[in-house]
Amino acid sequence: MCVFQLQKEVLDGAKKMIRDAIAEKLDIKSLFTASINTFRIVDLGCSVGPNTFSAMQHIIQAVKDQFSTDSINIVPEFQVFFNDHITNDFNTLFRSLPADRSYFASGVPGSFHGRLFPSGSIHFAHSSSAIHWLSKLPEELLDEKSPAWNKGLIHYVDAANIAVVNAYVSQFDKDMEVFLNARAEEIVRGGIMVLVSPFSGYRLLKFFGSSLIDMVNEGMVDESLVDAFNVPVYFPSPEDMTKVVERNGCFSIERIELTYPQSKLVDEADAKSLMSNLRAVLEGVFISHFGSKIADEAFARTILKSEDISAWMKANYEKQCQLFVALKRK
Questions:
Q1: What phi and psi, each to the nearest 5 degrees, are found at residue 98?
Q2: Is the Cβ–Cβ distance between 55 and 43 less than 8 Å?
Q3: Is the CB of residue 109 less than 8 Å from the CB of residue 84?
Q4: Domain ranges across the chain
Q5: In a 3-state reduction of DSSP, which class is residue 153?
Q6: Taking the model in full, what pTM does it have?
Q7: What is the Cα–Cα distance from 221 to 213, expressed in whole angstroms?
Q8: pLDDT, tens digit, 9 for 90 and up, residues 262-273
Q9: How far apart are CA 32 and CA 154, in angstroms?
């Protein structure tokens, strides 16, 4: 399974809920008149590959269906903005645009932790498998004298030190406040924002961490290098999201829930495939800190732990592992 397939399963799991949000919460009649007939959508953290196109087409079709259901005679035009960091391969993205697309496409490079669009210009914002990436590591994790110094671990998973967890939570709260403030400026009143984020899979990070510790014990990696490394991701719970959205006050929560995986990845071959997917997602962070040689060895060793990973997957595959959030601009 390639990384695009893993992301596809995340998107497929959310499609019905996205369609329901559009059908039940998007007031087409109040948003459009004969003089305003362009519907603008943004995919925040779009990456590359076919999944962003599939998600956008699904949203567009759901909106078209709603125009028909509401007996609105306006024929809308659609403009889709594909957003990601400036390091994203936009050339590949645009070379892959579907020839039969029913929208005008634009690229918007830049971090979504900040403004990207003019005020009141977006009708529907979508983000899948992106908001869990922090804008930066919490500073406390980088200070050896801090209570949140995360010695021997690469993430808050399995951290007995509550200060480590709190540091991640605090950074996520700050990032989401900036994110929500920016989107509140950009999304029209009555517009919808859907956020989809992994929830429980973060525990797989411990297998990468154990590979690094094995390399430390074998003298292949300096211990201080591992101690200074933390993966900058936080996987929010419904409670986390509810807190930041309510504190922000610009959006109403229309739906928030944990959902189940669409596929059942449980055997050893699945474990190898899944960890290869995670490598594709994480290797940039690992290489930046450790260099390619150490990172390659750590990933190779983690793949060899597939039996243990498979056992973990069998024990956890039926648990809710994906967070779905539908918000409406007040």
A1: -60, 135
A2: yes
A3: yes
A4: 3-329
A5: coil
A6: 0.91
A7: 8
A8: 555 555 566 777
A9: 49
